Amino acid sequence: MKSTRSRDTWLAIITILGCWLIGTAFNFTKAFHIDDPTYVRIAQWIAHHPLQPLSGLIPYNNQLTPIYELNQPALYPYLMALTGSIFSWSELSMHSLMSIFSLLAIVGMYRLSLRHCPARPLLPTALLALSPGFIVNQNTMMDIPQLALWLWFFVAITHDRLPDTRRYLFSALLLSCALLMKYTSLVLAPILLIDILRAKNSKYLLFLAIPAATIAAWSLFNMHDYGGVHLLTRSSSGAGHWDRHLKMVLFTLAILPAICPLISVAILHKCCQPNQPLIKLLWCIAAGVSALWIALVTVCELSGISD
């Protein structure tokens, strides 16, 4: 029994490290592209003006734009500023920072899978880590760091072996960090609230003060920085943009099978009866398309076409 458990542990470690090394290898020497240069410039401004992170002017859309008009808060640019100041501003240095969050995301997925898919926890872990949506999105942007924080938020809030006090404390702290990574992490707040209400202990509601205080402190810092509240004054905030957000949600749902082809195949296989001939045919077609998609992404990454 002990030898089996030890073997499973080593298999998990080797698989997780293998997935992480594959993803890191794709991203390690990748050139800055898309919005990467913008975030590097923001981090360079913060490195010289740490108390005024949003006041700088950077080239964006062919004009000088105040940083406070861009969408994201400054937690990750602060980490980039620290990394760049100590090491360098090269792709290698910035992508090394990203690889830390990639590993955190993979380990977080494995921890969740141990609880919700205990028979085969490495399968969903590999499906995430080796999906094109994960590998290609590393870059220097904030999607993978946010994903890592989200996954660990769910690890904390579903951890049944922790006392409720520590469980809600860790969840609230992770939510606070996620809010400073991307404001879309606000969607986690109702989850924390609902879980606290299910505990039927009103004293746990105090933990909601942690993310609330984080946003309040960040907003007060914004007032000192440039005289506004960043969450409310970004160029993309406001009711007039709800139609664009809805279109983005619908578009994301439409392309989800392309972003995560392996997950789509797994869902198809799980939800249908694989013994039926038609289902077998559809499953084979989906698997073939998924394999072709991954091969194309791999060729593009290796040849530098995506840059």
Write the layout of secondary structure elements.
Layout: H1 2-27, H2 36-48, E1 57-60, E2 63-66, H3 75-86, H4 91-116, H5 122-129, H6 132-135, H7 143-157, H8 164-181, H9 188-199, H10 209-226, H11 230-233, H12 242-259, H13 261-271, H14 277-303
Antiparallel strand pairs: 1-2
Helix pairs in contact: 1-4, 1-5, 2-3, 4-5, 4-7, 7-8, 8-9, 8-10, 12-13, 13-14
What do these coordinates show?
- The chain has 307 residues and is mainly alpha-helical.
- 69% of the residues lie in helices and 3% in strands.
- The protein has 14 helices and 2 strands, in the order H-H-E-E-H-H-H-H-H-H-H-H-H-H-H-H.
- It has a two-stranded antiparallel sheet with strand order 1-2.
- The model has no long low-confidence stretch (mean pLDDT 84).
Brief characterization of the structure:
With 307 residues, this protein is mainly alpha-helical.
